[in-house]
Description:
The complex is a heterodimer. By secondary structure, chain A is mainly α. Chain A contains 4 helices and no strands. Chain A starts with a helix and ends in a 13-residue tail after the last helix. By secondary structure, chain B is α/β, with parallel strands linked by helices.
Amino acid sequence: MPNIKAHQRSYITENFLFGQGADISDEASFLARGVLDSTGVLELVLFLEETYSIRIPDDELLPDNLDSLNAIEAYVRRKLDGGVHAVALAHASP
Amino acid sequence: MPSPLPTPLREAAMPSQPLDASVLTIDCAAEAERIATRLRDVIGRQFRRRGAVVALSGGVDSSVCGALAALALGPSKVFGLLLPERETSPRGMELGRRVAEQLGIEYQTHDLTPVLEAIGCYDQRDEAIRRVFPEYRKDWKNKLVIAGGLSGQFTFFKLVVQAPDGRMFCERIPHLEYLQIVAAQNYKQRIRKTVEYYHADRLNYVVVGTPNRLEYDQGFFVKNGDGSADVKPIAHLYKTQIYAMARHLGLPEEICASRPTSDTYSLPQGQDEFFFALPCDQVDLALWAHDHRFPHAALAYALGVSGELAERIYRDIEAKRRAGAYLHTPPVLFDTCPPGVATPTLSARGSPHA
């Protein structure tokens, strides 16, 4: 199983923060910290789909799945495991 | 000195005022006169220009701006521009022409299609569309539609295309294609502004920007495109107030009753499909309530929506403000450089007026 969190930290640091994001904690919200806007989310989605050969459907474009390193790691692992569904819109917490 | 009490927005005390459409009621006659006085002062005394250029799209915002400029300066000091391109609604141009004639201002039509074709606007946009829909051809129509956001998802966009036989296709658009389509479409606003400034320079006039409060506040404009102007006389007015002003100014009924559109894409597209995700009267009330610190529960009651949705509307307002900050920011200087210290010189680039 790939080290998803380290890989994502590296991607987000290099791609969105010009190398200055080493202090992003695992649980920090990208939105709250201003790391991602809606364009950045689409960029991140494309990167995840291409890197892990997964398909992220519209109803899974949720902060619960993508708004922190912890969330991304858990989400990608669920997708790669295949047997467990990712959080989808109907089950999203408010 | 006591430290200020923390009063987060949604925990602020409930204001005593009721929250309904009446909060947006204005005295249109008094407001029109106030704007006219400011226009005369800004254009004449501050900028020392002789009149105003207004691009008329046939929509309510530009029509009201044209009427206010004519009220302030007199019709002979306002120059109207109709700036269609091949995807512009002919109906909009017809309404723009009617407004210019009703106001009694001089106006000119300048078809931007050849310029936009030459610069690659349509080709570059269509190339990006074909990466999503390979069968897309020149005779198809297209638009971008906002999704997510108010449903709790991240905001994203869908690309909608329509074949000549009426078949519609819709896909979530990847970010590179989204950026290229928007960048190509932005040529339209930027070329329009170039033409407006040509006439403003030629006549020694100012350019009037026509954003309403929702567009200005939420960043629904193109930087150095429709966001560029010398004066923006209705940027403080909510959309519903602008409709009221249009009626007060006696503008054609089709304009007073029109639905806001972007008039940028070849398929019909309301602003609520592309940017705001809600009808403009609801966004008006939400923005007003947000800025007057009404709890989201009060907004939910006023709009007849769930508390959860009202909270998302507030979050969407704040997210759009964060994203729009870049659009409002002038070029960043890295050291102090106060304007006005340079010696005025004749320059091929700037104005020789000293």
